[in-house]
Amino acid sequence: MRGALMDYYLKILLVICAAHELAGGTIKSTRDAVYKKYLSLRSLPFEDCGSLYQVSYLDIESCTTLPCSMARNATIKVTVRFDDNGNGVSFLKHEVRWVFNYIKTQAAITPDPCDGDHGCIESASGGKAYWANIFVNETLPVMKGSMLWESKDANDQNLICFQVPVVITV
Ligand SMILES: *[C@@H]1O[C@H](CO)[C@@H](O)[C@H](O)[C@H]1NC(C)=O
Ligand SMILES: *[C@@H]1O[C@H](CO)[C@@H](O)[C@H](O)[C@H]1NC(C)=O
Predict the structure, then answer these.
(1) Which of 7, 108, 111, 167 has its Cβ near the most Cβ atoms within 10 Å?
(2) Are 5 and 73 within one domain?
(3) Which stretches make up the MD-2-related lipid-recognition domain (predicted)?
């Protein structure tokens, strides 16, 4: 009889533990979802052009509205957060182009590639964050266009792709 009662209590205890774990998991995933929402609200809007890893946040220095106003001869810091699905991404080769009237020209990015040497990529909550500077060449036309940003791994596989409307100013 006593043994049966103990079994009964043990079963209740297990059920309670399982319920706690379940609640814990729910709270964690809710918190992650809330954090992602928070990032997306603070992010500049952008068009994803086929990222393997979801971009959760984009910041372009001194740009708060689109199109991003970019002065010729300026060097502008770009910060991106993405979810690398726990793959420990530590190398990014950037390929960034300006697009004006369907004509693409290569943009100058530093540091490129981004590897362990420059402190340009780090772990961030929910994935990774990287930064890079883009140079607004004096030869760019003063008009509306877009900045097309791709980042690849060491095997040239595309990991990130986003596009943002910009306007070049003097
Ligand atoms: C571009 O910037 C560099 C460095 O800030 C400066 O030396 C140069 O005079 C600038 N050129 C023009 C055309 O403003
Ligand atoms: C700026 O553009 C000119 C002409 O396209 C190019 O020759 C030059 O290398 C560019 N400068 C930088 C820093 O990318």
Answers:
(1) 111
(2) no
(3) 46-166
Q: Is 26 in the pocket of ligand 1 (CB under 6 A)?
A: no
Q: Which of 103, 112, 139, 168 to mutate to test the pocket of ligand 2 (most atoms within 8 A of CB)?
A: 139
Nearest one of 141, 67, 60 to 100, comparing CA atoms: 141
Residues 150 and 77 in one domain: yes
Ligand 2 center to 1 CA (angstroms):
87
Range of the domain at 82: 45-169
**Domain count across the chain:** 2
- C-alpha 58 to ligand 2 mean position (Å): 26
Tokens for 38, please give them: 């928070």
Q: How many CB atoms lie within 10 A of CB 8?
A: 10
Instruction: Give the ligand 2 atom nearest the CA of 140.
Output: 2
Same domain, 145 and 116: yes
75 ligand 1 Cβ < 6 A: no
- Nearest alpha carbon to residue 158 among 52, 64, 54, 73: 52
Whether 99 and 124 map to the same domain: the answer is: yes
Q: Rounded CA gap, 148 and 49, in Å?
A: 9
CA of 142 to the centre of ligand 1 (A): 17
pTM of the model: 0.81
